[in-house]
């Protein structure tokens, strides 16, 4: 346990994603690692996993060991931005303000795109022969 909490050649402990999986099929491990190590290199402890591609039910699967996350954060480990965002969405940490802002922007963009796809329905002008039968045109 002493080996894990000591500094590593001037670095510090970071909680971040380590990429795994195959081509076009990413899979991430959420790990506590020294900041000087490679992204997919040796890590101190695996704290969870993330499958970013939706499964058959349309769900993105996340598994977290919250007890060990609390331990590492208590030891002074720093979070990477993607890890901080994920933990905010999971409810472990408060949501990052940019997460809320980006969600609102995306919602507005989708709403505008939806409105532009549905053109307004315009009524055809009345024909001169049947003008007496239809309501007045504006």
Automatic annotation (TrEMBL):
Its main location: mitochondrion. GO terms for molecular function: structural constituent of ribosome. Keywords: Mitochondrion, Ribonucleoprotein, Ribosomal protein. One of its GO terms (cellular component) is mitochondrial inner membrane. GO terms for biological process: mitochondrial translation. It holds the Pfam family Ribosomal_S16. It comes from the Eukaryota. Signal peptide: none annotated. The keyword Mitochondrion applies. The keyword Cell membrane does not apply. It is found in: Mitochondrion. PANTHER family: 30S RIBOSOMAL PROTEIN S16 (PTHR12919), SMALL RIBOSOMAL SUBUNIT PROTEIN BS16M (PTHR12919:SF20). Belongs to the bacterial ribosomal protein bS16 family. This is Small ribosomal subunit protein bS16m.
